[in-house]
Amino acid sequence: MRDRADYMLKGLSEEELLELADLFKMFSDSTRIKILYDLFDGEKNVTEICEDIDMNQSAVSHQLKVLKTAKLVRSRREGKSIVYALDDDHVKTIIAMGKEHIEE
Amino acid sequence: MRDRADYMLKGLSEEELLELADLFKMFSDSTRIKILYDLFDGEKNVTEICEDIDMNQSAVSHQLKVLKTAKLVRSRREGKSIVYALDDDHVKTIIAMGKEHIEE
DNA sequence: TTTTCATATGAATATATTATCATATGTTCA
DNA sequence: TGAACATATGATAATATATTCATATGAAAA
Q1: Is B58 within 7 A of strand C by CB distance?
Q2: DSSP string, A43-68
Q3: What pLDDT, in 10s, does the model give residues B18-28?
Q4: What residues of chain B have any CB closer than 8 angstroms to a CB in chain A?
Q5: How many CB atoms lie within 10 A of CB A46?
Q6: Predicted model pTM
């Protein structure tokens, strides 16, 4: 076994690689990626998201919480509903990268 | 529920989103991302990879198979050993995107 | 202030994923 | 040919993850 320094040589520590894996995990579930992609249009409330991606409210709420914990979306109350939006400029870039990949 | 066309409006079909999720899944596991990152250096055989990332041979072989099925790595025999290499130009780009993200 | 609407949450279940162990396969070299 | 080496693979067990169901919470409107 080599040590931690090996990772550093190329610029990423082991810890950072784990962080990266966690980031990509956010995009690796079909419900979550649909939610993120749905929010490309701009802010939407939970009901709208559910309709757009055809998933039930509870499942969507659970995943929104996961995405929020990962700081990829933010939310605010607006009257009776809660509106969500992308909270990270990289989301679109990362999905775009993946898009380029699968389109070849 | 809306239909498939909604996804198309923004350029990705539901099917493509599922493909994307599968792609990101490859980067979402710590063992796999370590393997991919290890291969940034160039070709390596299985034993070297195991040493570099400190995982046992069987686990590494299993994940190499997953990565190969996803066409992210390729392999060839070289004497007694099998050498693996990145098989996709996008791997580095995608990881680089993620890197930018976590570095902020 | 009670009812209704919108969302969140906990628990349970179902499913997927990963690592490990034992062993098989295939190659080289004595 | 057989021993040693390198890798792959199948089965199992451990763990993680997602969905569903029931219900709680909180805001608005009657």
Answers
A1: yes
A2: -EEHHHHHHHHT--HHHHHHHHHHHH
A3: 999 999 999 99
A4: 1-2, 6-7, 10-12, 14, 16-25, 27-30, 32-34, 37, 40-41, 51-52, 54, 88, 90, 93-95, 97-102
A5: 17
A6: 0.90
